[in-house]
Design a protein that fits this description.
single chain; 2 helices; alpha+beta; two-stranded antiparallel ribbon
Length: 69
């Protein structure tokens, strides 16, 4: 019989919508939903000077070498 309870809980878990979570506290569970915020997504402006592109590449390369050095 406990297997049936687990299957029901698993089914409820997999039917959660995006932004919904199950919070457990004091032996009880509660479904929580977070509001979706609109986030402005934009690419940074492109540098006009090719030297800026090269400098940016070298800077990023140096940072990666420091991380994985």
């Amino acid at each position: 019989m406990p297997e049936l309870v687990v299957n029901i809980q698993a089914d409820r878990f997999f039917r959660l919508k995006p932004g919904e979570f199950v919070a457990f506290a004091d032996g009880k569970e509660k479904r929580v939903q977070f509001k979706k915020h609109d986030i402005d997504k934009a690419l940074p402006p492109l540098p006009e000077n090719p030297v800026d592109i090269d400098a940016g590449f070298l800077r990023i390369r140096a940072e990666v070498r420091k991380l994985f050095g």
